[in-house]
Write a structure and sequence with these properties.
Blueprint: H1 7-12, E1 21-23, E2 27-29, E3 37-39, H2 46-53, E4 60-64, E5 74-86, E6 99-101, H3 107-117, E7 132-137, E8 140-151, E9 154-162, H4 171-185, E10 189-195, H5 199-207, E11 211-223
Parallel strand pairs: 3-4, 9-10
Antiparallel strand pairs: 1-2, 2-3, 4-11, 5-10, 5-11, 6-7, 7-8, 8-9
């Protein structure tokens, strides 16, 4: 498998290994106040599924190109059809915007902006997963984007959001450009995930030159011994 086909596993056994919660050799997850993702190896065996079942919380979210058929005891609670997209090789010139790095002191404003704009899950420690950038107007955070999953050679663009009062100024495009440029400056590249039903966001990314790399089989699974 390509690492991006099982990005969560390769993040939690790679650059994010220091924050990973490990269950035996075959299951990993992020802390619950950082991200919801769990992961098993590219080719999971019975031991890996047993390790996944040993997690203290259930259900679990697996997020990969193809979730293998789980063994007895597991059931699919929710399926979230998702697209994985990658940026163009050559980025267009970014719209001019006053972008600044976001720091720990900005976390309350980041969480508040996410609550107002709903780009996807963003929790108390999500900012620890990578670099985040924002745009402030009169000292108030009005747009942001950053890195979530990071694996060797790749960074996931995430939490792309703009206050409704400031949309139409190219802020999202400028911030996505900054995150991609940041990833490439470090010798890697970027990718992102978007729900299939989020057609408006898909259109925006396609306008910016992003293309679909693969479909992601995101599944919430629950385990019961009965």
């Amino acid at each position: 498998m390509h690492p991006l086909d099982n990005a969560v596993w390769h993040a939690l056994t790679g650059p994010h290994e220091t924050v990973a919660e490990a269950y035996g050799d075959g299951a990993r997850r992020y802390p619950s106040n950082m991200a919801h993702f769990a992961a098993i190896p590219d080719e999971p065996d019975a031991r890996a599924w047993a390790d996944l079942a040993s997690m203290s919380t259930s259900p679990v979210l697996l997020f990969r190109a193809k979730v293998p058929s789980p063994p007895h005891g597991w059931s699919v609670v929710v399926q979230l059809p998702t697209l994985q997209m990658v940026p163009p090789a050559a980025l267009e010139t970014a719209p001019d915007a006053p972008i600044v790095p976001l720091e720990v002191a900005d976390v309350p404003a980041m969480v508040e902006l996410v609550v107002r704009t709903a780009p996807g899950p963003f929790m108390e420690r999500t900012h620890e997963m990578g670099a985040y950038f924002g745009i402030k107007e009169r000292g108030r955070l009005v747009a942001m984007a950053g890195e979530r999953m990071r694996l060797d050679g790749f960074s996931e663009v995430s939490a792309v959001c703009t206050d409704p009062e400031y949309r139409g100024r190219g802020y999202a495009a400028a911030l996505v450009h900054r995150v991609v440029s940041h990833a490439r400056a470090g010798g890697g590249d970027a990718f992102l995930h978007v729900l299939v039903k989020n057609t408006s966001a898909i259109r925006v990314y396609e306008f910016l030159g992003w293309t679909v790399r693969t479909e992601i089989d995101a599944q919430v699974l629950a385990y019961s011994e009965s």
